[in-house]
What we know:
The structure holds two protein chains of two kinds.
Chain A: E1 13-17, E2 40-41, E3 44-45, H1 48-57, E4 61-65, H2 71-80, H3 82-85, E5 93-95, H4 106-111, H5 113-118, E6 123-127, E7 130-132, H6 136-147, H7 150-153, E8 167-173, E9 186-192, E10 209-217, H8 218-228, H9 235-240, E11 245-258, H10 261-268, H11 275-286, H12 292-295, H13 298-302, H14 333-353, E12 365-370, E13 392-394, H15 398-409, H16 414-417, E14 442-443, E15 449-450, E16 455-456, E17 461-463, E18 466-467, E19 472-473, E20 478-480, E21 483-484, E22 489-490, E23 495-497, E24 500-501, E25 506-507, E26 512-514, E27 517-518, E28 523-524, E29 529-531, E30 534-535, H17 545-555
Parallel strand pairs in A: 1-4, 1-6, 4-5, 8-12, 14-17, 15-18, 16-19, 17-20, 18-21, 19-22, 20-23, 21-24, 22-25, 23-26, 24-27, 25-28, 26-29, 27-30
Antiparallel strand pairs in A: 2-3, 6-11, 7-13, 8-11, 9-10, 9-11, 10-12
Chain B: H1 9-13, H2 16-27, H3 41-78, H4 87-91, H5 96-103, H6 149-159, H7 166-183, H8 192-211, H9 216-231, H10 238-269, E1 277-281, H11 285-296, E2 302-306, H12 313-323, E3 327-331, H13 337-343, E4 346-350, E5 353-354, E6 360-363, H14 366-375, E7 379-383, E8 404-409, E9 414-416, E10 418-421, E11 428-430, E12 435-437, H15 441-453
Parallel strand pairs in B: 1-2, 1-4, 2-3, 4-7, 7-11
Antiparallel strand pairs in B: 5-6, 6-10, 8-9, 11-12
Amino acid sequence: MPHAVTIATPGLQALILCGPGSSFPTFTANPDENPKALLPIANRPMVWYPLDFCYRAGITNITLICPPSAAEAITTALNTNPFLTSLPYPKADLLSPKGLDQNTGTAQILRLPEVQALVTSDFLVLPCDLVCELGADKLLQAWMVKSASLADLLSHSESPRAQPSGGLGVWYQTKTATPVKGEETDFTAVVPLPPSSILAPRGSLFPNISKLVYSMPTDSRKDLVEEQSGLPTRTSLLESHPRIRLLTTHRDAHLYIFPRWVMEFVRENEALETIGEDVVGWWAKAEWQKGLTTKLGLDEILGYEQKDDGKEDDKTGTGGLPSPGKSVTGNNQTLSVTVKDKAEQARKSESTLAGPSSGSLVPPMLAYIHPSQPTSTATAPTINPAPAPTIIRRVDTSQLLLQVSLQLAKLPSIEEAGPEAASPFAHVRKVAYPEGVKPRTTITKADSLVAENVTVQEKSSVKECVVGANCQINEGARLIQCLLMDGVVVGKNCKLTKCILGKRSEIGEGCVLTDCEVQENMLVERKTEAKDEKFMSSSGLEATDQDLEGYSDDAGDDDAGLL
Amino acid sequence: MATEGTSAPAVALTAQADGQAVVAHANAPAPAPADTPQLTPAQLKAKAKAEKAARRAKVKEDKEVVAAAAQSQAADAKSGKGKGRDGAQTSGPQGPGKVGLTHRPSMSGRRPSILIVEKDIRSSIPECFSHLPMAKRIPLSQVHKDVHPAVLSIGQQMSTFAIKDSISRLEATLKAFRKVIESYETPKGNSLSRHFVPHALNPQIEYLTECRPMCFSMGNAIRLLKAKVNSFDIDTPEDEAKEGLLEMIELFINERITLAEFVIARNAAKQIQDGDLVLTYGSHRLVEKTFLRARGDGRSFSVSIIDDPYDRGGQVMATTLRKAGIRVFYSPNLGGLKTHVERATNVILGAEAIFANGSLHAAAGTADIAVAATAASKKVIALCETINFDRERVSVDALTYNEIDPEQNSAESFRLLYDTTRDHYITGVITEFETGSGNSPAQAILALLRKQEDPALN
């Protein structure tokens, strides 16, 4: 039975952006019927992972944002998929803004009026393809303590505008033990936070939090370097931060905790197209680049007055005195107003005494750099040591899909590890339907995952695979490191290595496929031998009349004829 | 005999002499009738109890058998590869929970929040120090769902020691409670004065206490708040009650925190003369404000900061003072204290609280400074707001009321966060009321506070 979330809500809301899978050509050729958000990772639809992440943090106000064309498929899945329906209450909402299509940039999504109206508090932005095993509560704690400004969180409607909160982003290392070729990375520069005299509590993320000063996807950086034959660096960056740490193999997990004013920031600046590159990049730069705050309109958004020399006394201070029109009961009225006045005077005189405030007015964008090796928690022996590093990956290519699914398949199931020690991504059992597995078959349980209703015939072997629900694996088939989605039929005596088979595809008898991808509903002929091929249907790729005309024109007088 | 409560009124009407036997018969049908006349009511009661216990034990045994069988089924499911099994058939008669699980797909990874055993982090601390609290720092995933988001944030800040001193914590707590009151809605049929404290306020207080043990001023403020809530009539309209509470909090913050700080800084700044070398320990809000105020008044003096080696807060204060143009001497620990004290002209210390006997409760290390200063005949001035005066507790040593550092504790040693300075080492206490100096300065102020809160007392 789905249950309600029983931990405290942190007062943030979450937006999960379900975009088209432009890097998944095989499987999202039809993004409206098979949106990327529903592709299975370790037998759970992809969008389950960010949803689960939010629920584990106690966030209950979750909205999925998808283009209207894909809304139907996602709604159906939310209502019928067994994993999605077993998520706790309250259920996530689905928003399909009118202006959103498959090519809208992520920052443009935040600019849409429906989304602007939706966001009323500090918020999280998640991509639908994020697999994050790290506890969201730790990230939230890090944001609450390091980034969020207490004065802002506790601000009263009448009190002056307080120091605004900052943001937090997550970066992870892509160069792990098993790197995936062609994975996107980001070029990031961070500086450490000002040293604090207080020891960070054990198990918190504070030692890995730094301040972001520069962020750019590696592709953009390569273009820039090519254009300018070198990486142009501003001197103001080096002046403000003489010691910078440059990261080239990390990747932005696109998991951001943003304060509310970012919505206004995005709305005011039409030039921002994507969150990862533009919003975060420009925000990081605004901290050290002089004049950028005015150009981006941050001064008004953050409520800072212009600091003119010698005019401080004339200013009434941020916010001024609270309006005396508040109806106060009893005879404390005069007393409270007097005390209030005096307190205001006290605050003002203190601010002049303290001298000019520090230079950087922009609240920092912090970066949590996820370590690829587990940090030694060599303290209390009562706490279970975490042997494997926690997984944070974005799954946006098919190779990553395969690798992450296989990685998750290696997690011990709840049954084996016990409910407390099991990872939040563990399944109840490795082989969900053991009766379907006939004798004399080999399934390596330690690193495979077999879903419901799968029949595995005799003499077949399934090693290190993830098999989706309702599949049929016939006699003699050998599967090594494969990913099978729902309803796949694998013919007799096939040999498949490192393949990804889409929904309801069928592999004929005797095929030998290595490194192949098969689109959904495809039939692979018997006895096909292929390596590194993508079996896609040619529907949708037929030449339109316009293309044909263009072709015959180009051909000139040649009697090319119609194909 | 009707105490057994089983029989119909007919039994009660029977003659007293027979009563025993009849009731006994009704109660114990199983044993042979020959036994029954001998048993007294007390014995009967004991017998019924024993039977009940036996029944309970049996039920428990059955449950264990079921659990064991389920375990063995799970073990079966683990072992064996791909062998067709009649696991499905055996799962039928056994525990219903298991049956439900086999047919449902993998659970979404949510399991009931596990309460980590409370004394886990304290397991290494010897029993004799069990009265000293330590910050438990529960993670966000184990917080009760009634906790308000604002309180959640400040709890996290407190547990990670981002806000440490009592006044900052008090201010944050009050502002967070302001948000709780604003967002509170009395459910239908209840009144705020009866419903608010147990259902809205207490979960927040419990959570804050679990993040870090409460300081005295927080306890005082909460007591005042609860008293105010109770003072409302049961049929006071909600808006009126809420406004009253908000107003009280507003007044409290303005009067006893903001204004108090301002007045204390002004009064203490008068004690600093030109050319002074003022010694202080660690970093304290009031002390910093005093120095800045004195600087603003145009005095030229220098400051010598002795820092706590485990918590280098003095460095931040040193930077601030330097920016304001004050000359700062910094010492990273208590080494060479005698020399530093002899060079200084007076000593200003910040306090966390003042007990009823005038002792100062301050950051660990303050007592050393005070003792050394008194030995060198220097004036020792303590700065403390009246909200931090605790009129109920008395302390003569540092082990009665203290807190253990959650980062530095083990079976061999632990670090305490505070210590106690006896009142004869303090020359004067500056609060927002007036400067108490002379003998037992704190006592004078305590008397004043007593008079303030109980005007009838004279």
